[in-house]
Specification:
single chain, alpha/beta, Rossmann fold, six-stranded parallel sheet, two-stranded antiparallel ribbon
Length: 233
Protein backbone atom coordinates (compact mmCIF):
# COMPACT_ATOMS: atom_id res chain seq x y z
CA UNK A 1 0.00 0.00 0.00
CA UNK A 2 1.35 3.49 -0.83
CA UNK A 3 2.38 5.63 2.12
CA UNK A 4 -0.63 7.64 3.37
CA UNK A 5 -0.60 11.41 3.77
CA UNK A 6 0.44 12.18 7.34
CA UNK A 7 -1.81 15.26 7.48
CA UNK A 8 -4.87 13.60 5.91
CA UNK A 9 -7.98 14.60 7.88
CA UNK A 10 -9.88 11.46 6.87
CA UNK A 11 -7.46 8.77 8.01
CA UNK A 12 -5.15 10.87 10.23
CA UNK A 13 -2.13 9.36 8.54
CA UNK A 14 -3.14 5.71 8.98
CA UNK A 15 -4.26 5.13 5.39
CA UNK A 16 -7.47 3.47 6.62
CA UNK A 17 -10.99 4.75 7.31
CA UNK A 18 -14.02 3.02 8.76
CA UNK A 19 -16.25 1.48 6.12
CA UNK A 20 -19.99 2.10 6.12
CA UNK A 21 -21.77 -0.96 7.49
CA UNK A 22 -25.14 -2.04 8.84
CA UNK A 23 -25.86 -4.02 11.93
CA UNK A 24 -23.88 -4.76 15.09
CA UNK A 25 -20.72 -6.09 13.47
CA UNK A 26 -17.07 -5.52 14.33
CA UNK A 27 -15.78 -2.38 12.62
CA UNK A 28 -14.46 -2.78 9.10
CA UNK A 29 -11.91 -0.56 7.45
CA UNK A 30 -11.10 0.42 3.89
CA UNK A 31 -8.29 2.33 2.28
CA UNK A 32 -8.46 6.09 2.53
CA UNK A 33 -8.90 8.28 -0.55
CA UNK A 34 -5.38 9.68 -0.07
CA UNK A 35 -3.97 6.19 -0.63
CA UNK A 36 -6.33 5.39 -3.49
CA UNK A 37 -5.24 8.59 -5.25
CA UNK A 38 -1.61 7.52 -5.03
CA UNK A 39 -2.55 4.13 -6.50
CA UNK A 40 -4.17 5.89 -9.46
CA UNK A 41 -1.15 8.14 -10.00
CA UNK A 42 1.18 5.13 -9.87
CA UNK A 43 -0.94 3.43 -12.51
CA UNK A 44 -0.85 6.56 -14.70
CA UNK A 45 2.95 6.60 -14.45
CA UNK A 46 3.04 2.93 -15.39
CA UNK A 47 1.16 3.69 -18.60
CA UNK A 48 3.52 6.57 -19.47
CA UNK A 49 6.31 7.83 -17.21
CA UNK A 50 5.86 11.52 -16.42
CA UNK A 51 2.20 11.66 -17.48
CA UNK A 52 0.89 12.47 -14.00
CA UNK A 53 2.95 15.69 -13.99
CA UNK A 54 1.09 17.29 -16.88
CA UNK A 55 -1.27 20.18 -16.14
CA UNK A 56 -4.88 19.84 -15.12
CA UNK A 57 -7.78 20.67 -17.45
CA UNK A 58 -11.48 21.01 -16.73
CA UNK A 59 -12.82 18.66 -19.43
CA UNK A 60 -11.81 16.69 -22.49
CA UNK A 61 -13.58 15.45 -25.64
CA UNK A 62 -11.76 12.16 -25.04
CA UNK A 63 -13.88 11.42 -21.98
CA UNK A 64 -15.97 8.30 -22.49
CA UNK A 65 -13.92 7.17 -25.50
CA UNK A 66 -11.46 4.72 -23.98
CA UNK A 67 -13.30 1.90 -25.74
CA UNK A 68 -13.18 3.64 -29.16
CA UNK A 69 -10.57 3.68 -31.93
CA UNK A 70 -9.30 7.25 -32.27
CA UNK A 71 -6.89 9.02 -34.62
CA UNK A 72 -5.66 12.07 -32.72
CA UNK A 73 -3.56 14.85 -34.24
CA UNK A 74 -2.17 17.09 -31.52
CA UNK A 75 1.03 18.35 -29.96
CA UNK A 76 1.98 17.60 -26.37
CA UNK A 77 -1.28 19.29 -25.37
CA UNK A 78 -2.77 15.82 -25.92
CA UNK A 79 -0.99 14.56 -22.82
CA UNK A 80 -3.04 16.89 -20.60
CA UNK A 81 -6.14 15.24 -22.00
CA UNK A 82 -4.70 11.77 -21.58
CA UNK A 83 -3.88 12.53 -17.95
CA UNK A 84 -7.41 13.90 -17.44
CA UNK A 85 -8.86 10.62 -18.70
CA UNK A 86 -6.51 8.21 -16.97
CA UNK A 87 -6.62 9.67 -13.46
CA UNK A 88 -10.37 8.98 -13.61
CA UNK A 89 -9.86 5.27 -14.27
CA UNK A 90 -9.46 2.68 -11.52
CA UNK A 91 -5.87 1.73 -10.63
CA UNK A 92 -6.48 -1.69 -12.16
CA UNK A 93 -7.10 -0.20 -15.62
CA UNK A 94 -4.23 -0.89 -18.01
CA UNK A 95 -3.05 1.42 -20.78
CA UNK A 96 0.27 2.02 -22.47
CA UNK A 97 1.75 4.75 -24.66
CA UNK A 98 3.83 2.95 -27.28
CA UNK A 99 6.12 4.85 -29.66
CA UNK A 100 6.48 3.95 -33.31
CA UNK A 101 10.16 3.26 -32.56
CA UNK A 102 9.14 0.65 -29.96
CA UNK A 103 6.90 -1.03 -32.53
CA UNK A 104 9.78 -1.42 -34.96
CA UNK A 105 12.13 -2.55 -32.19
CA UNK A 106 9.70 -5.34 -31.23
CA UNK A 107 9.45 -6.35 -34.88
CA UNK A 108 13.25 -6.32 -35.25
CA UNK A 109 13.57 -8.51 -32.17
CA UNK A 110 11.41 -11.17 -33.80
CA UNK A 111 13.47 -10.92 -37.00
CA UNK A 112 16.73 -11.28 -35.11
CA UNK A 113 15.45 -14.42 -33.36
CA UNK A 114 14.93 -15.97 -36.79
CA UNK A 115 18.47 -15.08 -37.84
CA UNK A 116 17.35 -12.44 -40.33
CA UNK A 117 19.55 -9.65 -41.60
CA UNK A 118 18.61 -6.25 -40.13
CA UNK A 119 19.09 -3.00 -42.03
CA UNK A 120 18.00 -0.29 -39.62
CA UNK A 121 20.10 2.49 -38.10
CA UNK A 122 18.08 2.23 -34.88
CA UNK A 123 18.94 -1.46 -34.47
CA UNK A 124 22.49 -1.22 -33.11
CA UNK A 125 21.24 -2.81 -29.92
CA UNK A 126 18.03 -4.84 -30.19
CA UNK A 127 15.93 -4.79 -27.04
CA UNK A 128 14.65 -8.14 -25.80
CA UNK A 129 11.99 -6.62 -23.55
CA UNK A 130 9.34 -7.35 -26.19
CA UNK A 131 10.13 -10.13 -28.63
CA UNK A 132 7.13 -9.65 -30.93
CA UNK A 133 4.59 -6.96 -31.77
CA UNK A 134 1.78 -8.86 -29.95
CA UNK A 135 3.97 -9.01 -26.83
CA UNK A 136 4.05 -5.22 -26.88
CA UNK A 137 0.53 -4.23 -27.90
CA UNK A 138 -1.87 -6.98 -26.84
CA UNK A 139 -1.85 -6.89 -23.00
CA UNK A 140 -3.10 -3.33 -22.23
CA UNK A 141 -6.79 -2.51 -22.35
CA UNK A 142 -5.91 0.62 -24.34
CA UNK A 143 -2.80 1.28 -26.44
CA UNK A 144 -1.84 4.77 -27.60
CA UNK A 145 0.51 4.56 -30.60
CA UNK A 146 2.71 7.66 -30.58
CA UNK A 147 3.94 8.51 -34.07
CA UNK A 148 6.95 10.64 -34.97
CA UNK A 149 9.56 9.22 -32.59
CA UNK A 150 11.37 6.96 -35.03
CA UNK A 151 13.63 8.81 -37.47
CA UNK A 152 15.74 6.16 -39.21
CA UNK A 153 13.99 4.76 -42.25
CA UNK A 154 12.79 1.18 -42.37
CA UNK A 155 10.93 -0.10 -45.43
CA UNK A 156 8.75 -2.33 -43.23
CA UNK A 157 7.54 0.53 -40.99
CA UNK A 158 4.02 0.85 -42.53
CA UNK A 159 3.50 -2.91 -42.32
CA UNK A 160 4.62 -2.87 -38.69
CA UNK A 161 2.06 -0.18 -37.84
CA UNK A 162 -0.70 -1.97 -39.73
CA UNK A 163 0.14 -5.22 -37.96
CA UNK A 164 0.00 -3.57 -34.55
CA UNK A 165 -3.41 -2.02 -35.25
CA UNK A 166 -4.80 -5.19 -36.84
CA UNK A 167 -3.56 -7.24 -33.90
CA UNK A 168 -5.54 -5.00 -31.58
CA UNK A 169 -8.57 -5.31 -33.88
CA UNK A 170 -8.29 -9.09 -33.72
CA UNK A 171 -8.19 -8.98 -29.92
CA UNK A 172 -11.23 -6.70 -29.83
CA UNK A 173 -9.28 -3.96 -28.06
CA UNK A 174 -9.29 -0.21 -28.83
CA UNK A 175 -6.32 1.73 -30.18
CA UNK A 176 -5.52 5.44 -30.26
CA UNK A 177 -3.11 6.63 -32.94
CA UNK A 178 -1.44 9.92 -31.99
CA UNK A 179 0.45 12.02 -34.53
CA UNK A 180 1.52 15.67 -34.39
CA UNK A 181 0.41 18.62 -36.59
CA UNK A 182 4.00 19.40 -37.61
CA UNK A 183 4.60 15.76 -38.62
CA UNK A 184 1.18 14.38 -39.63
CA UNK A 185 0.61 10.75 -40.51
CA UNK A 186 -0.05 11.09 -44.23
CA UNK A 187 1.57 10.55 -47.61
CA UNK A 188 5.34 10.79 -47.22
CA UNK A 189 5.36 9.77 -43.55
CA UNK A 190 7.69 6.90 -42.66
CA UNK A 191 4.74 4.79 -41.46
CA UNK A 192 2.19 5.72 -44.13
CA UNK A 193 0.79 3.32 -46.73
CA UNK A 194 -2.49 2.58 -48.48
CA UNK A 195 -3.12 -0.22 -45.98
CA UNK A 196 -2.64 2.17 -43.07
CA UNK A 197 -4.94 4.70 -44.76
CA UNK A 198 -7.69 2.11 -45.20
CA UNK A 199 -7.38 1.13 -41.55
CA UNK A 200 -7.46 4.67 -40.19
CA UNK A 201 -10.55 5.63 -42.18
CA UNK A 202 -12.54 3.67 -39.59
CA UNK A 203 -11.08 5.65 -36.68
CA UNK A 204 -12.85 8.61 -35.13
CA UNK A 205 -10.84 11.73 -36.00
CA UNK A 206 -9.88 14.27 -33.33
CA UNK A 207 -7.57 17.19 -34.08
CA UNK A 208 -5.99 20.02 -32.13
CA UNK A 209 -7.44 23.49 -32.35
CA UNK A 210 -4.61 24.52 -34.68
CA UNK A 211 -5.36 21.84 -37.25
CA UNK A 212 -8.20 22.62 -39.64
CA UNK A 213 -8.17 19.82 -42.19
CA UNK A 214 -7.77 16.08 -42.45
CA UNK A 215 -4.19 15.23 -43.52
CA UNK A 216 -3.74 14.53 -47.21
CA UNK A 217 -3.80 10.92 -48.25
CA UNK A 218 -6.53 9.91 -45.82
CA UNK A 219 -9.87 8.55 -46.89
CA UNK A 220 -12.81 10.76 -45.92
CA UNK A 221 -15.61 8.88 -47.64
CA UNK A 222 -19.11 8.85 -46.19
CA UNK A 223 -18.41 5.43 -44.66
CA UNK A 224 -15.50 6.84 -42.68
CA UNK A 225 -15.77 7.69 -39.00
CA UNK A 226 -13.52 10.73 -39.44
CA UNK A 227 -15.15 13.57 -37.51
CA UNK A 228 -13.20 16.74 -36.88
CA UNK A 229 -13.42 17.30 -33.17
CA UNK A 230 -11.15 19.83 -31.53
CA UNK A 231 -8.68 18.96 -28.79
CA UNK A 232 -8.06 22.01 -26.63
CA UNK A 233 -6.96 22.73 -23.12
Amino acid sequence: MPKPEVDCEQCEGTGLVKALQKGPHPPEFERCDCVKHKDVLANVEKGMPGLSNFGKIDKSPLMGKIDKNLWITSGNNFLKHLRHIMIRQPPTYTFKVVSDAELVTAWLASISLKGGVIHDADAILISTKYMTIPDLVVPPELVILRMGIKVARNSAAPEVLAEAINTRFHEGKPTWVWDEPNHPLNSGHLFWSDDVARTLQHFERIQSGRSSSTPSGSNTSSSSKNTRKSLRG
